[in-house]
């Protein structure tokens, strides 16, 4: 078992602080990114720049100021949450809050509020494929977050798209949050879709982020102790051949003295929330531990975590750094969350994590 290095945490906190100190997108671009020089323009000039490295986006110099770098583009391929707390709605808010531009590929419409899902309508395959092709033509993704994929046909359509991009060498980071059941108990994915996801999505994923329940459904056994989580992580890597797995929800394990939140992602009474990260590079896995947060308003934490990881990877951060920052971002959002309806309220989409107390160890 490897704990996250304390010195690494300090560097991440400095990085977050620097980002918070700027009001422009400049703060969110790695120092190694190319910069275009200031232009000689009049005080009221708005001037288009030359084509950027991607060849598809333009930058603008407003009133002779420094050019703003193009924001990293991140896609959400997921279901729509009419209540606005999870799904594509949460993803897009997280992308924006963390300095990226979000695009959406809607895989399903859901009629839901804070305590129930009343109806799910899966997007047509034609609309799904057309949306993917349309975005790829003009706004290709630096990173992709994948959420709800309800049917095997939808899974295969997305999987084929990822395979084509991988063959072309243009596939960026892919974060798969295997959404199967809502926090209110509604089933969002059938068994055929689950197997298709293992076969076609997982092999293209940089990281998969199942919570405790989803991991149990995938591996076929109950996770009662930390050793079960570690075993499940290894089994999931072997099963799907993904780059890494983050098993969420160790706070509900025997011996840790806690119960799960209404969302199945946050914690209620446990002393800590523990997730387990295992990469396929042969390195030992890491337990990533966050502080106790007493807030029932945790709807959308799973979507938010995976989206935040995608946003940080789109800004060229290493995977472990992206996961740690995403955990801090979610903790910060839970602290600010509030109740909106009769059920759990959504985690708030705030900004780069700013408090040391929100960082895991």
Please give the structural blueprint.
Blueprint: E1 2-3, H1 6-20, E2 46-48, E3 60-62, E4 73-81, H2 87-97, E5 101-112, E6 117-122, H3 125-138, E7 143-146, H4 152-168, E8 173-176, H5 191-201, E9 207-208, H6 212-219, H7 226-240, E10 244-247, E11 272-279, E12 286-291, H8 301-314, H9 319-335
Parallel strand pairs: 1-12, 4-5, 4-7, 7-8, 8-9
Antiparallel strand pairs: 2-3, 5-6, 10-11, 11-12
In DSSP terms (H or I, runs of 4 or more residues), the helix count works out at: 9
* Rg result: 20 Å
Uncertain segments are 22-58, 255-269
CATH class: Alpha Beta
Q: Percent range for helical residues?
A: 25-40%
- The spatial strand order of the largest sheet comes to 6-5-4-7-8-9
Q: How can the largest sheet be summarized? A: 6 strands, mixed
Helix-strand sequence: EHEEEHEEHEHEHEHHEEEHH
Q: What distance separates the N and C termini?
A: 13 Å
State mean pLDDT (0 to 100 scale). 80
Indicate how many domains the architecture comprises. Answer: 1
Tertiary shape: globular
CATH topology: the name is UDP-N-acetylmuramoyl-L-alanine:D-glutamate ligase
Q: Would you mind describing this structure in some detail?
A:
Residues 81-347 form the Pyridoxamine kinase/Phosphomethylpyrimidine kinase domain. Pfam families: Phos_pyr_kin. Residues 1-25 form the signal peptide. This is Pyridoxamine kinase/Phosphomethylpyrimidine kinase domain-containing protein. This protein is of the alpha/beta class and 361 residues long. The chain has a single domain (73-358), classed as Ribokinase (UDP-N-acetylmuramoyl-L-alanine:D-glutamate ligase), CATH 3.40.1190. It has nine helices and twelve strands. It has helices spanning 6-20, 87-97, 125-138, 152-168, 191-201, 212-219, 226-240, 301-314, 319-335, and strands spanning 2-3, 46-48, 60-62, 73-81, 101-112, 117-122, 143-146, 173-176, 207-208, 244-247, 272-279, 286-291. The strands form three sheets. The protein has a six-stranded mixed β-sheet with strand order 6-5-4-7-8-9. Strands 1-12-11-10 form a four-stranded mixed β-sheet, with helices on both faces. The radius of gyration is 20 Å and the shape is globular. The model is unreliable at 22-58 and 255-269 (pLDDT under 50).
